[in-house]
What we know:
Elements: H1 3-6, E1 15-18, H2 33-45, E2 50-52, E3 57-63, E4 69-75, H3 82-93, E5 100-106, E6 114-117, H4 126-135, E7 142-146, H5 156-163, H6 171-192, H7 194-201
Parallel strand pairs: 1-4, 1-5, 5-7
Antiparallel strand pairs: 2-3, 3-4, 6-7
Helix pairs in contact: 3-4, 6-7
Amino acid sequence: MTASETSVPLVIPQLIVGLGNPEAKYHETRHNIGFAAVDMLARSWQISLSENRRFQGLCGEGRGPKGNKIYLLKPLTYMNRSGQAIRAVTDWYKLPPQSVLTIYDDMDLPVGRLRMRLSGSAGGHNGIKSTIAHLSTQDFPRLRVGIGKPGDGKAETDTISHVLGKFTPDEKPVVSEVMYLVRDAIELSLKEGCEKAMSLYNSRSVVGTKP
Length: 211
């Protein structure tokens, strides 16, 4: 390992945010896969989530796999104002943007895939657009979880109904397996940094079984 490699600090998440919409009608929709991921992490790490009005979200704190303090957040601001809740938490706990790992849905990835990055544009995602605006930077890690596209030649209304719709019966087992990949990738990022998780999990995929 070169000196230049050893001098680069590891990106270790401290706040893990799942993006979604709060109403019951959005529960288990494709757009809420970030909420589902945080719910799974809360169960795995035995962290209870409760509403915090100061943070405009459901949040909790506990210990990660290395014993380090971890904060979990599900903004209740609706997707396009997610950054308000995230900024409230980072200001209160004095967390740098680089410690905020955001989990959200991505139509450009098929169901069964995930992709972690250290920075980047919003790519048309309103939740990330709001997060970038409130953190005043694009330099924060994010984990995109594939929800697939509605199909070629579909109108914009079909795209909206796809994003706000639920996974098909064939897709649900794949999504369940992907949640384990999400958890494993995040746990590795907490132990060895996001770059290590990227190198091992960005090429992984879950393939559904078709009748």
